[in-house]
């Protein structure tokens, strides 16, 4: 029997609901459309981070420890930038997706430095047009 995309996503969502804090699950052979569908379905659940690379999907659940380290490192980056008078634009955990290369990621934090002017007034970043962040933080 061949699973339909909706059945597959429902099965993955069930597995994610049982995923313990601070754990990850790796799935192989997922189509780009399935990855995007899963992102849509879990959009309101901030506890998951996704990394997709040409069919391989890693889903991570956040933990209090992870969030604490992330906040500390993000604060250090901002203080360092201020101390050295570096213009920097944080874009938090901006989802970075590129359908052309079938890759997507949710970094913990990302920053524009050299490419700051290219994205300054943008509400949405499209990596097929816009530059990628200059600095990406992943705990």
Give an overview of the whole structure.
With 139 residues, this protein is of the alpha+beta class. It is 34% helix and 22% strand. It is built from 4 helices and 8 strands. Strand 5 and strand 6 (103-105) form a beta hairpin. The longest helix has 20 residues, at 64-83.
**Integer-rounded radius of gyration:** 17 Å
Q: Got a strand count?
A: 8
Query: Taking strands numbered 1, 2, ... along the chain, how are they ordered across the largest sheet?
Result: 1-3-2-6-5
User: Can you write the helix and strand succession as a string?
Assistant: HEHEEHEEEEHE
Overall mean pLDDT: 85
What's this model, at a glance?
Helix content is 34%, strand content 22%. By secondary structure, it is of the alpha+beta class.
Q: What keywords describe this structure?
A:
three-stranded antiparallel sheet; about 20% strand; about 140 residues; five-stranded antiparallel sheet; globular; alpha+beta
Produce the secondary structure layout.
Layout: H1 5-17, E1 24-27, H2 32-41, E2 48-53, E3 56-61, H3 64-83, E4 89-90, E5 96-98, E6 103-105, E7 109-112, H4 116-119, E8 135-137
Antiparallel strand pairs: 1-3, 2-3, 2-6, 4-7, 5-6, 7-8
Helix pairs in contact: 1-2
